[in-house]
Structure of Thioredoxin domain-containing protein:
Amino acid sequence: GERRLVRDLDTLSIDQRLEYVTPLDSDSFDELVQDVAKDVLVYFYASKDCQACLEHAIFVNRCAERFAELKIGSIVVTRFDMSKYALPVWIQQVDALPALIIFPAFDKDPPFRRFVGQKWKVQYIMWWAQQHASIKFHLPELPHLDELERQAYHEQKAQMDADRGRLERETLSTKDEL
């Protein structure tokens, strides 16, 4: 079937890993994050000396890509490099990196909702964003997968189910022979 070219992650910089994520700086932060027409996810990271930031970036990037593919325009996925810029005064200290915080359209005040206690996986981040967004939106059953990936997933699942059924029948048949 049709396949997508996947780049070697080891060769990608953090900026390349975040290619679909809107960059913020000290000047643009307030304007975009305070936009009451948008739910804004901000990925706080350090481009220098933060291995976890590098590893988690691909999940945030894929979220931004999938929200765009799903045409969910009410949510914006952004990034703020704390090794380059100072936090705005109104933001409480971001004490650990990486951090993912949502600023819902209709509730930009503290306490801020931080993505914690869950796996850094695309679908979990998307479900979390859906739960905390002011502007409600629908996600498909497997929001992290595009149509091509969803087809492959269902084919693999059907094959696994068939293999499991065959093994169960063979096991029962072997027990009957004993």
